[in-house]
TrEMBL record:
Cited PANTHER family: ABC TRANSPORTER PERMEASE PROTEIN (PTHR30193), INNER MEMBRANE ABC TRANSPORTER PERMEASE PROTEIN YCJO (PTHR30193:SF37)
Originating organism: Faunimonas pinastri
Pfam families, per the entry: BPD_transp_1
Compartments where located: Cell membrane
Domain ABC transmembrane type-1, first and last residues per copy: 110-323
Cellular component, GO, one term: plasma membrane
Protein name per UniProt: Carbohydrate ABC transporter membrane protein 1, CUT1 family
Length: 334
């Protein structure tokens, strides 16, 4: 038996309009309750930004103090004559005019640097590509050979140069002893002859640096699709044809990258002539960076040395721009 509870006058049934009003009130109350959360989220983002800046601050301060500030200072110094001890004298473009028009030694040194760049670049690329092709074939212990060939890259250049100075030493070095054993004569005076000293620098530099490009080329060759080689074999293509028409075209992006990086590093060569020959005999192995060092830290002409540094920077930027322009004609990305 069910009982019906009568409603009093204070307990009226809400109408449809009252339901909508109540819903709107709850909805607005919900939004109002979410507003503090939104503001707290913004505060959290601000805290994350401050934390990120705090973590970046040490590196950022170091970058500004030891990279940006010296670059700007060298640019300013290039317009001054400053012998370190004394008052800087503003020369305007005088250092650059002297460098390009009156310093005959500079142009001879530019020739020495280009000699090193051309010899080092060609030998480095040829040797690194050849070894990379060999290591991507059916060679046992590939990992061991890659490690051995890459090991000189990990060694400090100064240590490499000291070792090679002992090897090239005349008349008691190991290389001289090998020449004497094979030919009966001690061979050339590698570090003491103007005709052979630059060749010694190139040989040592290639040995120390080809492993880096070798790793790049190994990765590039292993990224070439294998079905292309299989189809070429089915068509009767030999190893040389496969290399010329498949490997070499598809390896051009890696070759371009290696060429740009090797060219930039070779234009800045310093440790090899400094350790091996001291820029000699005479000035036969003096490079642009070594000439910069002589003027700045031996002759104390900081303004003139800064002008040399910025001239080298412009040369590197110009050569790199030309390479990027020419890459459209020989680099294949597909």
């Amino acid at each position: 038996m069910s009982a019906t509870i009568p409603l009093t006058k204070h307990e009226a049934v809400p109408g449809p309009g009252e339901h909508e009003a109540a819903g709107a009130t709850e909805h607005s109350g919900t939004h109002a309750g979410n507003r503090p959360k939104r503001s707290s989220r913004k505060g959290g983002r601000g805290g994350e930004t401050l934390a990120a800046l705090a973590f970046l601050a040490p590196n950022l301060v170091g970058f500004l103090c030891f990279t940006v500030l010296p670059i700007v200072a060298s640019l300013v110094l290039s317009f001054y004559e400053w012998p370190i001890i004394g008052t800087p004298v503003f020369k305007g473009l005088g250092n650059f005019v002297k460098l390009f028009t009156r310093d005959v030694v500079f142009w001879r040194i530019v020739g020495h640097t280009l000699h090193f760049v051309v010899g080092y670049l060609i030998l480095n690329l040829l040797i690194s590509i050849g070894i990379a092709v060999w290591l991507t074939g059916r060679v046992p212990a590939k990992g061991f050979f890659r490690f051995v060939f890459f090991l000189p890259v990990l060694s400090p250049m100064v240590a490499n140069a000291v070792v090679w100075r002992l090897l090239f030493a005349y008349p008691d070095g190991l290389i001289v002893a090998v020449f004497r054993m094979l030919t009966g004569s001690p061979g050339p005076n590698w570090l003491g002859s103007p005709d052979w000293s630059m060749s010694a620098l190139i040989i040592m530099s290639v040995w120390a640096g080809f492993g880096y490009n070798m790793i790049i080329f190994v990765a590039g060759i292993e990224g070439i699709p294998k079905p292309l080689y299989e189809a070429a074999r089915l068509d009767g293509a030999g190893p040389w044809v496969r290399f010329r028409h498949i490997t070499l075209p598809l390896l051009t992006p890696s070759i371009f990258f290696a060429t740009v990086m090797t060219l930039i590093s070779s234009l800045q060569v310093f440790a090899q002539p400094y350790i091996l020959t001291g820029g000699g005999p005479g000035s036969s192995t003096t490079t642009i960076v070594y000439y910069l060092y002589q003027n700045g830290f031996q002759n104390y002409e900081m303004g003139y040395a800064s002008a040399i540094a910025w001239s080298l920077f412009i040369l590197i930027m110009g050569v790199t721009a030309v390479q990027f322009w020419f890459q459209k004609k020989w680099v294949h990305y597909e």
